[in-house]
Write a structure and sequence with these properties.
Elements lengths: L3 E13 L2 E8 L5 E6 L1 H4 L7 E5 L1 H5 L7 E6 L14 E3 L7 E3 L10 H5 L8 E4 L5 H16 L5 E6 L10 H8 L5 E4 L8 E2 L3 H10 L5 E6 L16 H11 L3 E4 L3 E2 L9 E2 L1 H10 L5 E7 L15 H15 L10 E7 L1 H7 L17 H17 L2
Parallel strand pairs: 3-5, 8-12, 8-13, 9-10, 9-12, 10-11, 16-17
Antiparallel strand pairs: 1-2, 1-4, 2-3, 4-5, 6-7, 14-15
């Protein structure tokens, strides 16, 4: 189940919040590989350190950013962490299980605030399938907040369908540094956020009552598990997040996963992931922001190409038709149309982190990011 390698660190590279890149020369092999370490789990690295690596996904060309993952130093153990409060164990019963202080833990200074908390007081909660939607949602939200002259405090509630360590996400680190995200709350088996929570429910309550967020965005961490089947994908949890927001008295906003460039029919227009998660799993009613794709340059698959209004009209028609399955009178949700034009494109270009979804950037799949940005616009409009 695990492909193991050992090697020696030859070079330490980029570092961001909680993560460190390194080059490792493999033993019994002529290759040098890119590796990623989480110093909070395995200790610090320096050139000459001997490390054990998990290369399973890298060897198969699957996910994990192309990295081998550092499991441990083989030549020196890191010091024990200092004694402290907290008894939440994340990545439970794996060799790298970590103990953290949960925001909802009995030893937490926020325990009293959360012990009987049960209400989000109408806080908008944008739910998205993919981690790549996060900066786009925020770009739309900030653009609308700017038009309204209001400040915006945002919490990102990260679920455990993708990467478990929030440290893996350069986007979260960059968005926090830029002031676009005020706190990251990691839930379930995910860990490494500014706050740790047991469930999405307590994560959302912490966003409201501890972070003081005006708006929360719920999405899995980087990575996405899919099998090409109707139900076998990690984004099913988006429907459960809608339910959590609804039962806690929030205002769920279901961000559509849209593509104008995906070669797979099941993801073209509105992805079957959104149709299943929101149409079958979500039992609470949500607002569904429908991007009105108009007055856009290029084509839905190439913004740098000559303008093709017919291609945009065809995609817009497809999105409208697919969305009818989710919203009244056919479905339980509420449609809210949001103009997605050049102004929203300009807002997306202000993102402090790279926009990329399924390997495609803004110019190669603009509809994906416009749909997410539309959800952010609508969420801020709910704030009045």
């Amino acid at each position: 189940m695990i492909a193991w390698r050992a090697g020696v660190v030859t070079e330490c590279g980029a570092r961001w919040d909680g993560a460190l890149e390194a080059r490792v020369a493999l033993e019994d092999d002529d290759r040098t590989v890119r590796a990623l370490a989480y110093p909070g789990l395995v200790g610090e690295l320096e050139p000459g350190a001997r490390v054990l690596l998990n290369v399973t996904a890298q060897a198969r060309g699957l996910g994990t950013g192309g990295y081998a993952l550092v499991v441990a130093r083989a030549d020196a153990l890191p010091a024990d962490p200092p004694p402290g409060p907290g008894h939440l164990v994340k990545a439970r019963y794996t060799p790298l299980q970590a103990m953290v202080l949960g925001v909802d833990d009995q030893e937490s200074p926020h325990h009293e605030a959360l012990r009987d908390a049960d209400d989000l007081a109408g806080m908008p909660v944008v739910v998205a399938d993919l981690h790549s939607a996060l900066p786009a949602v925020l770009a739309g939200a900030r653009a609308e907040a700017g038009l309204r002259g209001r400040a915006l405090r945002v919490a990102y509630v990260m679920t455990d369908g993708g990467a478990l360590p929030a440290w893996f996400s350069r986007a979260v680190a960059g968005l926090r540094d830029a002031g676009w995200v005020d706190a990251c709350v990691t839930t379930g088996q995910a860990f490494g956020g500014d706050l740790e929570a047991v469930t999405v429910h307590t994560g959302l309550l912490a966003a409201r009552h501890v972070v003081g967020a005006d708006l929360a965005v719920v999405a899995q961490g980087p990575g996405n598990l899919g099998t090409g089947t109707r139900w076998g994908f990690s984004g099913v949890a988006a429907g459960e997040a809608v339910n959590a927001a609804g039962v806690l008295g929030g205002r769920p906003v279901a961000s559509l996963r849209v593509s104008g460039a995906d070669p797979r029919e099941r993801h073209l227009g509105v992805s079957h992931h959104s149709l299943t998660a929101y149409g079958r799993v979500a039992l609470a009613a949500a607002d569904v922001p429908v991007p009105v794709l108009a007055d856009l340059p290029g084509t839905p698959a190439d913004l740098t190409a000559p303008a093709d209004p017919d291609a945009w009209a065809e995609l817009a028609h497809r999105v409208e038709e697919q969305t009818t399955r989710l919203v009244a009178p056919v479905g339980r949700h509420r449609a809210h149309r949001v103009t997605a034009d050049g102004t929203l494109l300009d807002a997306l270009r202000t993102s402090p982190v790279r926009l990329s979804t399924m390997g495609r950037g803004l110019d190669a799949d603009p509809a994906a990011f416009l749909a997410a940005a539309a959800a952010g616009v609508h969420a801020v409009r709910l704030l009045g």
